[in-house]
C-alpha cells in the first residue's frame, strides 16, 4: 500500500469551530503531492460573525466570502477531492472538529474520515524547540510559505508527512502510525436518534 493521503487545513471566522471560512487541500499519491485545491467558504448561519482576532490571523473578512459557497454547497467538492483518503492536519483535532461541527451546524452528514495528526508525528520525528507548522515545515525541507493561508498550510502539512515517512522508512499511513506510536483515528459521527412514538 503506497503513502496516499489528503492534507487538509481550515481557517475559521471566530472561536466557534463550526465557523469554517476557508479550506486548503493537498492530495498525496505514492509519497508525492499530485494535486492541490482551496477555496473560501461562507460559514454556517449562527457561526458567521468574523471576529477581528481571527481576521488578523488569516486576513479573511466577511466581505471576502459573500460570493463563496455555503458549507453545505462545498461539502461535496471537499469530499470528492479527499475521496476515501486518510486526512492529515497539523493539530488534527482542531480541523476534524471544524469538519464535524460545521456539518452539525448545517445538518449535513459528516463523512467518517480516518485521520492522523502531523503535529503528533512531528513531535516523534524532529527535535525542535517549537512544533508550530512553519518551524516543522522548515525542518522537513519545505521553504517559507504564507502561514494561515489554508492552501499553503495544507501543502506544508503534506510535506511534513512525506518527509516523516521517508525518515522512518514507513511505506504507508498505517505503517507510519505504528512505527511512531501515533493514532490513526476516525471522526466520530452521531448515530441517528430513534424517534419515539
Notes on the structure:
- With 197 residues, this protein is an alpha/beta fold.
- It has a single domain, classed as 2-Layer Sandwich (Nucleotidyltransferase, domain 5), CATH 3.30.420.
- The chain is 39% helix and 18% strand.
- It has 7 helices and 6 strands, in the order βββααβαβααααβ.
- It has helices at 52-58, 71-82, 92-106, 118-125, 133-139, 150-168, 173-180; strands at residues 5-12, 20-29, 32-40, 87-89, 114-117, 185-186.
- Helix 4 (118-125) crosses helix 6 (150-168) and helix 5 (133-139) crosses helix 6.
| β-sheet strand percentage | 15-25%
Oligomeric state of the chains present here: single chain
- CATH architecture descriptor name: 2-Layer Sandwich
**CATH C-level category:** Alpha Beta
N- to C-terminal separation?
48 Å
State Rg: 17 Å
CATH superfamily: Ribonuclease H-like superfamily/Ribonuclease H
As laid out across the biggest beta sheet, the strand order is 3-2-1-4-5-6
What is the count of DSSP helices, taking H or I runs of 4+ residues? Answer: 7
Give the overall form: globular
> What's the story with the biggest beta sheet?
6 strands, mixed
How many beta-strand runs?
Answer: 6
Question: Helix content range of the residues, please?
Answer: 25-40%
Please provide a brief summary of the model:
The chain is α/β, with parallel strands linked by helices and 197 residues long. The protein contains seven helices and six strands.
Q: What topology does this entry show?
A:
Elements: E1 5-12, E2 20-29, E3 32-40, H1 52-58, H2 71-82, E4 87-89, H3 92-106, E5 114-117, H4 118-125, H5 133-139, H6 150-168, H7 173-180, E6 185-186
Helix pairs in contact: 4-6, 5-6
